Amino acid sequence: MVKEKFISIKEAMKKGSGKVAVRGWIYRERGSKELIFIVLRDSSEIIQCVFKKDKFKKQWKDIDALQVEASIEVKGTIRKDKRAPTDYEIEADKIEIIGESHEFPIQKDLNEELLGDRRHLWLRSRKMVALMKIRSSYIQARDEFFKKKGFYRFDAPILQPTQSEGGSTVFEVDYYGNKVYLAQTWQLYGEAAVFALEKVYNMGPTFRAEKSKTSRHLSEFWMAETEVAWWKLGEITEFAKEEIKYCIVKTVKECAKELRFLGQNTQKILEITKKKWPTIKYRDALKILKEKDKINIKFGKDLRTIEEQKLMQHFDTPVVITHYPKKIMAFYKPKDPKKTDEALGFDMLAPGCGLEIVGGSERSLDIKEMSENLKEEGEKPEDYKFYFDLRKYGSVPHSGYGVGIERVLQWICGTDSIKDVIPFPRTMMRWKP
Question: In 66-197, which residue ranges form alpha helices assigned H by DSSP?
Answer without folding.
Answer: 112-117, 119-122, 126-148, 187-197
